Amino acid sequence: MHSATLVVESYLSGCRVDTFLAKHFRSYTPWRMHRMVRAGQVTVEGQVAAPDRRVFTNEEVTVRLLEPPDNLMPAEEISFGVVFEDQWLLIVNKPAGLIVHPTGQNPSGTLTNAVQHYLDRNSAFPGASKPGVVHRLDRDTSGVVALAKDHLSHRLLSMQFQRERIAKSYLAIVDGVLKTDTGTIDLPIGRARSGSSALMSCQADAIDAKPSKTNYEVVERFSRHTLIKAKPRTGRLHQIRVHFATIGHPVVGDDFYALLGELKPDRERSKPGEPALAPISPYIGRQALHALELSFAHPMTTEWHTFSAPLPDDMEQAIELVRAI
Q: Per residue in 234-290, pLDDT tens?
């Protein structure tokens, strides 16, 4: 049996006690918390809480978790790198090929499942902490991802991302040789008229196009390619890939976006147990894009941090291959 005491934050003042507890214990549904309130396992300021009890700023709420979590993320042992960890945050280096969060087509085998296993392994009470996703990387983009361990950190960090008060840097290998050392791509991005609803476009007929800006600098030029550092100022889906393809420099190995932002024909992924499909690029088996750095104000200490994820081996090898041409 696990017990915990919490102090009510001002932004949750006035909500019902079971709702308050479900916010903090995200592996429990409000219904399951309501059962524990009704069973007399919750006190507010030392008094057993009634089911309709509301809580207010600075009140102490204590709960005895007699029942197991009923909204637990399945834990799976999948490898990833830990960049930074404290009691509020877990910053990881996501490997390429791993989706960040379960979806309808991919209900398991994701980074979130892997992080749940990691948290449970380091906790005396599995399920007490549930990873909070605040942003995503594409399946085939490697690099730094931030996850929150508790409700308040998740809320505050999500607000920073929504208000674009964070900074991101990516390394990418693109086709062709960029002429300028630095530049800005300022082109609206919306959903592409053709192809999957997940594909994006800078074309004039793009659906619901929104302002999108990417700053970049050249890191190294090769005979047929360029290594660039891209710093997206907005957070549109596939932003770096779409922007560079549109200006004539697609990311090497990109499945979707070709020269001038044209969409490539659909290409199925190999299924488990089947031979792997030939990669699009001879240099790397996925898009040559890596989330190198992520900077933001720590949601609890407010200190500004920059977290870096080292380049994976396949990106290092791809750089050497294009350098040798």
A: 999 999 999 999 999 999 999 999 998 889 887 655 455 555 567 789 999 999 999
Report the percent of the chain where pLDDT is more than 70: 95
For the chain, the average pLDDT equals: 93
Max CA distance (Å), the chain: 74
Domains of the chain: 2-65 (3.10.290.10), 81-162 (3.30.2350.10), 167-267+275-323 (3.30.2350.10)
- Tell me the residue type at 286: R
* Greater pLDDT, 183 or 27: 183
- What span, in angstroms and rounded, lies between the C-alpha atoms of 153 and 137? 20
Please tell me which residue in 120, 138, 175, 254 is annotated as part of the active site.
138
What does the pLDDT read at residue 289? 98
Q: Helices 17-24 and 30-38, interaxial angle, to 10°?
A: 130
Q: Do the Cβ atoms of 257 and 239 come closer than 8 Å?
A: no
pTM: 0.88
DSSP output for 176-242: S--SSSEEEEE--EEE-SSS-TT-EE-STT-EEEE--EEEEEEEEE-SSEEEEEEEESS--TTHHHH
Beta-bridge partners for 4: 63
SS3 track for 20-85: HHHHHCCCCCHHHHHHHHHCCCEEECCEECCCCCECCCCCEEEEEECCCCCCCCCCCCCCCEEEEE
pLDDT at 124 over 90: no
Active site residue 18: no
